């Protein structure tokens, strides 16, 4: 393919002008036209092709785990951005997708993962640091915590 985003990995900083919260979505553009990453809740795969200043996203699929309502809403907005043909530009260590339809606000702003120092936080919660393993209780069904581990206490 030989394009400037081939072989790069990005963390999503903003979607439609709103900063991402919780675990940040991530996109990796493979050398072979394959796309992989995370929505922050679910893993995703697909294909991409770059033509000029347009990324053509296609054949996307993802796991179907449930998350908190805010995380699911953020996931939905992110998946809408990486559908079909999307203009892009590189600005230093930022990949700007979009703009949003009918506006000047970028559809998404991503920071190149290599630009995040190892050990720096990339989201809220344990194990969300670049280059460090995820630690904590094992996930249970639908991505929840297994056997009630780590549940927050009820109201006092």
Automatic annotation (TrEMBL):
Q: Which InterPro entries does the protein's record reference?
A: DUF306_Meta_HslJ, HslJ-like_sf, Hsp_HslJ-like
Region (Disordered), start-end ranges: 120-156
Task: Please give the superkingdom of this protein's source.
Answer: Bacteria
Residue ranges occupied by any DUF306 domain in the UniProt entry: 4-98
Q: What is this protein called?
A: DUF306 domain-containing protein
């Amino acid at each position: 393919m030989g394009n400037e985003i081939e072989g790069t990995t990005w963390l999503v900083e903003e979607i439609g002008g709103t900063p991402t919260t919780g675990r940040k979505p991530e996109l990796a553009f493979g050398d072979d036209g394959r796309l992989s990453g995370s929505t922050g809740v679910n893993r995703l795969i697909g294909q991409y092709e770059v033509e000029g200043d347009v990324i053509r996203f296609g054949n996307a699929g993802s796991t179907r785990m449930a998350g908190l309502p805010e995380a699911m809403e953020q996931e939905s907005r992110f998946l809408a951005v990486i559908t079909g043909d999307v203009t892009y530009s590189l600005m230093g260590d930022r990949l700007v997708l979009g703009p949003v339809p009918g506006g000047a606000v970028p559809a998404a702003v991503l920071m190149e993962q290599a630009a995040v120092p190892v050990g720096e936080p990339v989201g809220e919660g344990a194990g969300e640091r670049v280059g460090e393993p995820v630690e904590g209780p094992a996930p249970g069904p639908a991505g929840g915590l297994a056997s009630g581990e780590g549940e927050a206490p009820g109201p006092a």
